[in-house]
Design a protein that fits this description.
- The structure is a single chain.
- The protein is globular, with a radius of gyration of 16 Å.
- The longest helix is centred in the first third of the chain and has 15 residues, at 30-44.
- The relative contact order is 0.17.
- The protein has one domain: Spore Coat Polysaccharide Biosynthesis Protein SpsA, Chain A.
- By secondary structure, the chain is of the alpha/beta class.
- The protein contains 7 helices and 9 strands; from the N terminus they run βββαβαβαβαββααβα.
- It has a 7-stranded mixed sheet, sandwiched between helices. Strands 2-3 form a two-stranded antiparallel ribbon.
- The chain has helices at residues 30-44, 56-61, 77-88, 108-121, 143-147, 158-163, 187-198; strands at residues 2-9, 24-25, 28-29, 49-53, 66-69, 94-100, 125-130, 133-141, 168-172.
């Protein structure tokens, strides 16, 4: 299974009170946590990460990626998905996996298990899940990948699998905090505490 790795990093951080993607967390910018992990996996497969950005400082932090600009992030999540797909192209032989840049505690081994399970499932779409709660990353191939170009506004890939749930593979996460993303500054201590409690 050939994979296009896409990191969505063009959000406006409106609820955070500043640029959350560059907020220092455990010694590096928030956005670098998931990026560094997927970059390592992609490099081992001779593949590349594409990062969709809307700010120069975030582009610099993710300069090791193929950087794609979203000129209108206010149009919502769908616009970033589509910017990436226009850059890399859509192929029947390729799966497209989308990560969000504010999900810092998703470990490499869980990513690898998710991809292996999806490949073996034969499904067109996949996401992670913990006790019924679904979350990122999401992966798409075949007609479902092409259908991402029809999304509008803040509708992500979940809009597609809600319409065709029989095409969805769900990967059971070992820990709930793997799915946590950071929306507000107050999320950081609470979610870090949750992480420590789960070990």
């Amino acid at each position: 299974m050939r994979i296009e790795w896409i990191l969505l990093a063009a959000g406006r951080s409106s609820r955070f009170g500043g640029n959350k993607l560059l907020y220092p967390l455990e010694g590096k910018p928030l956005c670098r946590h998931v990026f560094d992990r997927i970059r390592k996996i992609a490099a081992g497969r001779k593949e590349q990460v594409t990062a969709v950005v809307s700010r120069e400082d975030v582009a610099q932090a993710l300069s090791a990626a193929r950087v794609v600009w979203n000129p209108a992030p206010e149009r919502g999540l769908a616009s970033s998905i589509q910017c990436a797909l226009r850059e890399v192209g859509i192929s029947e032989e390729t799966a497209y996996v989308f990560f969000v840049a504010d999900q810092p505690w998703l470990p490499e081994e869980e990513i690898l298990a998710f991809l292996a399970g999806f490949d073996q499932s034969g499904k067109e779409m996949g996401c992670m899940e913990y006790k019924g709660r679904r979350g990122n990353p999401g992966i798409f191939r075949g007609p479902s990948a092409a259908a991402l170009m029809t999304l509008e506004g803040d509708r992500g890939g979940s809009a597609l699998w809600k319409k065709e749930p029989e095409k969805l593979y769900t990967h059971p996460c070992k820990e709930e905090f793997y799915l946590f993303d950071i929306d507000r500054k107050e999320d950081l201590p609470r979610k870090k505490e949750d992480q420590n409690d789960s070990k």
